[in-house]
Every structure is written in C-alpha cells, then in structure tokens.
Amino acid sequence: MTQEGTQGADDLTGFSINQMTVRQLTLPELVKGLTEQGVPGVGLWREPVATYGLTATARLVRDAGLTVTSLCRGGFFTAERPAERAAALDDNRAAIDEAATLGTDTLVLVSGGLPPGSRDLFGARERIAEALAELAPYAAERGVRLAIEPLHPMYAADRCVVSTLAQALDLAGRFPAERVGVVIDTYHLWWDDQLAAGIARAGAEGRIHCFQLADWTTPLPEGVLNGRGQLGDGAVDFRWFDRAVRAAGYTGPVEVELFNEGLWAREGIGVLAETVARYRAHTR
Amino acid sequence: MTQEGTQGADDLTGFSINQMTVRQLTLPELVKGLTEQGVPGVGLWREPVATYGLTATARLVRDAGLTVTSLCRGGFFTAERPAERAAALDDNRAAIDEAATLGTDTLVLVSGGLPPGSRDLFGARERIAEALAELAPYAAERGVRLAIEPLHPMYAADRCVVSTLAQALDLAGRFPAERVGVVIDTYHLWWDDQLAAGIARAGAEGRIHCFQLADWTTPLPEGVLNGRGQLGDGAVDFRWFDRAVRAAGYTGPVEVELFNEGLWAREGIGVLAETVARYRAHTR
C-alpha cells in the first residue's frame, strides 16, 4: 500500500493520520498526500465525508489502497427527551452504515455530556449503556465495532461523561468485546495514574479497538477543544504508550488525531510531512 | 462567632469563604464582610497575608472571632534540581510556620506539575512522596496537617500530577492520617466515577482535611485557571457532595473557593453576600 521508493516507509506499517489533523485539505488532496508520504491508513470524519460524498469517498480511499482505520463519530447518547434520544439513535445507525460503506470496522463514540441544566452524571451514564445495548447488535450485523472513547475529564460536562479508561472498560464490559470496545487516545488519558493497569486490562479483554496519538500542550486555549499538540511538543510519553499497548497485545493501527488551530492555519501537505516525521521521532 | 441578629446565621455553622473568592477585598474589608454576613470561617492565601503582614493578619482574624479553615498553599515538590528542591522545602517549612501562626491546622498542598521538558510522571510523583516524608514531621511538631489537593487532570502537566482522590489517598497513605490527608474540592473531582468510593475511603481513613466548593462551568477560559463557577451556575451537584462527605464522617468546615475573573471584577461585598446565598440555596 505504501509508495515504492519512499525512504523508510516500512516503519509506517499500521500508521494512520486522522483527516481532522489536516482539515484544510480536501479528501483528494489528503489521499494524494498520504499515499505520497507512504502513510497506509486514514481516519475519517462523517461531516467532510458527507461533503465529498459517501460512496465517492469510499471509492477514493479504496482505489488509493488506503486502510480506513476509524470513522468519527457516533455517540451523544445522553439526551433525556424521547424525541432527542430517538434522533440520536437514528443518527448512530446512519454512522454505522457509513462506517460499513467506508470499509472500516471501527466507529468511534463520543458518548455525550450532561443535558443542559442537568447535574445527573449517573443518569447520563446509564443512558449511554442503554443506547449501546440498542446499537451494538445493529453494528455487529454490519461488521462494525463500537469504540467508546473516554474523553479527558475537562469535557465531562459538555461532551462526554466517560472520562477514564477504567470507566470505559466497565461500560464496554456489559457487551461482547468484538462488539463494544474502547479508544485509547493519549491526549485524553496520559495523566491517569491507573493507566498502565487499564491498558493491560483493555488488551487482555480484547477491547482496544482504536489507538490515537496527540500531545498535551499548555496553556490550553479558550474552550479547550483545539489545543491538541503535535507529537513531541508536549507532556505525553509516546514511547511509553506504544510499549504499553503492544505489551497488552494490540497489533492494530496507530492514528494521529490533532485538533489544532495552529496546524490548521498552515499548508496541509507540510503538516502531513511533519506529522510523519514526528511519529518516527517520538514513537520509535 | 456569628453576629447576633443575622437572620438564618445558624445554618452557616462550619461555613467558610476562601479569600481568593473575593481577592478584590483587603483583609480588613474581608474580615468585616464575613462577620457582617455571619460567616464564621475564612480560608487564607499566603501572598495577601504577607502583604498585610502575618502577625497583623493573625490578630485581625482572631479578634474578629473567625476560624482560619485552611492556608493555601504549600507544595510544588516536583523540581529535579537539588537547589530548586531545597528552596521548595524551605518555602514549605515557612508555609507551615505561617499556618501555625495563623491558627489553622491545615496547609493545602498543590503538589506540582512536570518540570519543564519532562514527561516523567512517575518520577514527579515519587519526588512528591519524598518531600512529604521530609515535611510531615516538621508540620506535626507545629500542629499542622498537610492536605494533598488532587487537582483536575487538566492541570497535570503544569500544576499538579496528583489528579484523583484515590491517587491522593494512595500517596497520603504512606503517612499517618493526622499528619497527611487530602482536600476534597468539588471543582477538581466532580467528574470521577470512582468518587463515591474515594470519599467513603477518605472519611474512613480520617484523611478529609479540607472540603472546598466551586462549580464547573463551560466554556473554560484560556489557560483554564480562573473559570471556577459560582455555586449553582454549573454541573456540580453540591447536595450529593455534602451528603457524601457527611456520610463518610466528616464534620469539619465547608469552604467556598472560587477563582473567577467575572467575580473579581465585581464589588466584593456583593460577591460575599451572593456566595452565602448560593451556599444556602445549593447545599442545604
């Protein structure tokens, strides 16, 4: 799948870059850039895929020989009103269908925060479990696994009440491992003193469905959404993570997913090349 | 200690407001405001105390009949260089002396983040334990308890590598409970699905040395330092916290500590009155 003659491309086996990292690129620009750099995988997002067209995207990446390592994202399961819940489930079924069409077996789930005005974390978490129970069989029939992403606790109120790997595993544990697993994203999890045990457990249970890299840099920007650092710029020890997931038995792709205003303001192909270089420098 | 005739003041038994909540007030203004509102306790910070004078502050609060519920803050134990470590320990001994002079038994510790350029969370945590071992006997001789404050994980890189209550308890557990305990601050801990068990454990071990309230509001401001919400404005269920710490056997003070640019821009006595009203409305 990698380009002939790309120096050092062999060490990029299993490597993937999520399209949000270079959202300034169109899908054809992204696919061309990845193949030229020898990157064999890509993580996709529903919105830009819809803009380019679902079947057109599926054809584009397949023809380029790229592996779609994940689709972001389903989730947002915590609404209380029946109509909102029904709409969320419908949207997740659509996301599962899109994942299947794109040829990826992994749908990443951002589970949802507290409904407006609510302080009921316990209720919100139970509604996530109920939604998973409803969606997991639908996903399984289409060969898609639901990957619960524990998000950093700073997102607990407004994006995701699942905040640690152990918590995500407890939730996933209600379902078969081939149907519901977890995302290990370094940005969200690096601070946790229970992380080594959590990664070992996730591997032993066969629930590491996705492994994503981003660095933790400070100061955090207002709103704390778009400050994920380029690899090597921050506090995350990527070699530690890489060793830990491999020791836990993980052999799947490694995907870099950055949301960063500074990177988005730059020329995208240069950001791709930098990301490949940083991956080589900081994980190998 | 409360003013005669202050309506409803009885339900403020054990209530305290940290001076950072109204940092726009001088110490005499603060003390006058608290006594007029019937608030029996105050949490102090070293810098404004030093500005007013240590012995003058001690006299001021004692004469007003206020209980000093905590002194913020010691800590910052994670430096690697010997000279920096020695300076940090000296500064913490000074903080312990100041706590004793002010008549509080509780020094709050912000343990410190990663040294610049470091990614070694494990080493940083061990240096905290070493510092506690050196300081705990010194503090105990002066009747001061060291209260480890787990800070929200969004501060792990630059302020505190102790991020959960369980982690703080594991660290405190190396020392006698009357010497080293923990701070339970709603702002830092509210998101944790293991919190109920942690609070029960902290109470059973006799290690709840300080209980602080602030609400979680979004969006977070740039740098995420000064966005702690007024009680009732955010996601924290204060009644749940109050019940949990009391069920765990805690009978100590309850201190409101807000860092909020919006509150600091307002007239301070009005903020004090609002804080008392919010405390009554959201915890009782």
TrEMBL record, chains A, B:
<keyword id="KW-0413">Isomerase</keyword>
<dbReference type="Pfam" id="PF01261">
    <property type="entry name" value="AP_endonuc_2"/>
</dbReference>
<dbReference type="InterPro" id="IPR050312">
    <property type="entry name" value="IolE/XylAMocC-like"/>
</dbReference>
<feature type="domain" description="Xylose isomerase-like TIM barrel">
    <location>
        <begin position="40"/>
        <end position="274"/>
    </location>
</feature>
<dbReference type="InterPro" id="IPR013022">
    <property type="entry name" value="Xyl_isomerase-like_TIM-brl"/>
</dbReference>
<protein>
    <submittedName>
        <fullName>Sugar phosphate isomerase/epimerase</fullName>
    </submittedName>
</protein>
<dbReference type="GO" id="GO:0016853">
    <property type="term" value="F:isomerase activity"/>
</dbReference>
<dbReference type="InterPro" id="IPR036237">
    <property type="entry name" value="Xyl_isomerase-like_sf"/>
</dbReference>
